[in-house]
Design a protein that fits this description.
The protein is an alpha+beta fold and 82 residues long. Helices cover 30% and strands 15% of the residues. The structure holds zinc ion (ZN).
Length: 82
Amino acid sequence: METKPCSRCLRPASLSFYLLLSTVGVRPRVQQSSKSVLFCHRCLESLIDSLADAQPEIHSQLAGSFSRMRGCSEPHGCEGDK
Ligand SMILES: [Zn+2]
């Protein structure tokens, strides 16, 4: 399988990150997603940490998702989580 580089450090990427924006209270709902940005674990963790003070709610959501995904994107997979 082709290895793609992390967008920040050029080590092999293990996760892709993208944003999904949705309208609230408007029908029909309109959504726009960004293009994905690739990260290695270390750089994504660093990005999430950097949001802790400035954007605590986004930090909390990303940290939770990252924690749940973490095992699944590593070489041994997430079979132990099932
Ligand atoms: Zn990286």
